[in-house]
Design goal:
Distance between the termini: 34 Å
Shape: globular
Oligomer: single chain
Number of strands: 18
Number of helices: 15
Radius of gyration: 22 Å
CATH superfamily of the largest domain: FAD-linked oxidases, C-terminal domain
Number of domains: 3
Largest sheet: 8 strands, antiparallel
Structural class: alpha+beta
């Protein structure tokens, strides 16, 4: 497998030769076509550039060598994992080096310590399988868990369907190995359950989108297997009523999952694979522990909020069929055309207001915006659809995209809950953080990467 792919003649003199020395001359391929898949992520509206090279190191030592070479030549570095990101953060830039970690795939399970030592290229699903084979469970579960990498999850602090009860990626990080911009390798955190010696720097790197350092290894906490769950499905004839039901449920208990799909998302899924969701305006899917009265609490909350139909099952296969419908919503909506995949979050009590705001923005613009989301933690994905061949339509979609983000901010929310800022949202970050926090952010960036070589333009 090639470790370096040269895709541009814009490299400065000696740069490619130094890369040969760092990762091996025989691994250099000069065919640009072989590097095409390393230019894009899944943010379809971000136009990637042409990197000077694509490098695929196999170890922390090789990553450090590549970073050292890039720093010596003043070449920026764009780090990428599986390329499933939705914000443009790993899309290639002109004149930059693309550092792909997809070959770094090792996973080691320490069953007694309930830890997994993982390289960043390992897929989320692979970590789950290895943990399960050892009688353990890795909870973070993005909808794309079968194809997304742990490195990408760390870069964006990814969440997922069960995170309303079990937490997000950062809650499972015990330690990190990071290559800094000056090629030093540091280890942050440790293997103990409790550790408060010094600053908790590992959390600084989780969610930093490759702009502070290159994560080359993570020690992840594992749990005992998840207890059996019951799955509850409810339909509503008003999406805001579904939002009110979410508020009632979360005010009473923490479900294992609580997901929402509105009418547009339901129709898109049913057109691909009918799972009996019907023609409702909204569907809520909840999972709770079988024991106790959690199921009864959820059913009563759904009914009190005006659910038109409520059903539940203890059957794991039936439950997975329903939750699988939620997981497949984005690829089903993508069959309708190009999609800008929003990722906003609001405080739980403002969920009905956000859903109403998205519905209003969609109607005024005349653009379909199906909505799905991790309703239990207030994190929603409005899916702005458009015809990419129509330039005016793409511009209108961008305006809708920005208006939804500003609506979330007006409700006390955030422009991203788990997908990252990337390039799609960098122009709005200051609106959320304000000038003082932006100044502090830039000072931290400058301290760790004074030459601004790591993933420039992502959120600074």
């Amino acid at each position: 497998m090639p470790r370096v792919v040269v895709v541009s003649n814009a490299a400065p003199p000696g740069f490619i030769d130094d890369l040969y020395a760092a990762v091996g001359h025989a691994a250099v391929v000069t065919d640009p076509d072989l590097a095409l898949r390393y230019r894009f992520d899944r943010a379809g509206t971000v136009e990637p550039g042409s990197p000077v090279a694509v490098v695929r190191p196999a170890s922390t030592a090789e990553v450090a060598s590549v970073v050292r070479v890039a720093a010596a030549h003043g070449i920026a570095i764009i780090t990428r994992g599986a390329g499933t990101g939705l914000s443009g953060g790993s899309a290639a830039r002109d004149g930059a080096l693309t550092l792909s970690l997809d070959r770094m795939r090792s996973i080691h399970i320490d069953r007694e310590s309930m830890l997994a030592v993982v390289q960043p290229g390992a897929l989320n699903a692979e970590v789950k399988r290895e943990a399960a084979a050892n009688g353990l469970w890795y909870p973070p579960d993005p909808s794309s868990f079968e194809i997304c990498s742990i490195g990408g999850n760390l870069a964006t602090n990814a969440g997922g369907l069960c995170c309303v009860r079990y937490g997000v990626t950062t809650d499972y990080v015990a330690a990190l190995e990071v290559v800094l911009a000056d090629a030093r390798v540091v280890r942050l955190g440790g293997r103990t359950v409790k550790d408060v010696a010094g600053l908790d720097l590992k959390r600084l790197f989780v969610g930093s989108e490759g702009a502070l350092g290159v994560i080359t290894e993570a020690t992840l906490r594992l749990r005992p297997p998840q207890p059996p769950v019951a799955t509850i499905a409810a339909t509503f004839d008003d999406v805001s009523a579904a939002g009110s039901a979410v508020c009632a449920v979360v005010g009473a208990l923490r479900p294992s999952a609580l997901e929402l799909m509105d009418a547009g998302a339901i129709r898109a899924v049913e057109a691909v694979r009918s799972v009996g969701l019907g023609d409702a305006e909204a569907v809520l899917l909840a999972q709770v522990r079988v024991e106790g009265d959690d199921r009864g609490t959820v059913v009563r909350a759904f009914e009190a909020a005006g659910a038109t139909y409520v059903a539940s099952t203890d059957d794991a296969d039936e439950g997975e069929l329903l939750m699988g419908a939620r997981r497949m919503a984005i690829p089903c909506v993508e069959r309708l055309g190009s999609v800008m995949i929003e990722d906003v979050g609001v405080p739980i009590p403002r969920i009905p207001d956000l859903l109403a705001a998205v519905r209003g923005i969609s109607h005024r613009a005349g653009i379909a915006v199906p909505v799905i989301g991790h309703a239990g933690d207030g994190n929603f994905h409005p899916l702005v659809t458009f015809d990419a061949a129509d330039r005016d339509a793409a511009d209108r979609a961008q305006a809708v995209f920005d208006e939804i983000m500003r609506a979330a901010l007006a409700l006390g929310g955030t422009i991203t809950g788990e997908h990252g800022v990337g390039r799609l949202k960098s122009h709005l970050l200051a609106d959320q953080l304000g000038p003082d926090v932006m100044d502090l952010t830039r000072r931290i960036k400058a301290a760790l990467d004074p030459n601004g070589l790591l993933n420039p333009g992502t959120w600074i």
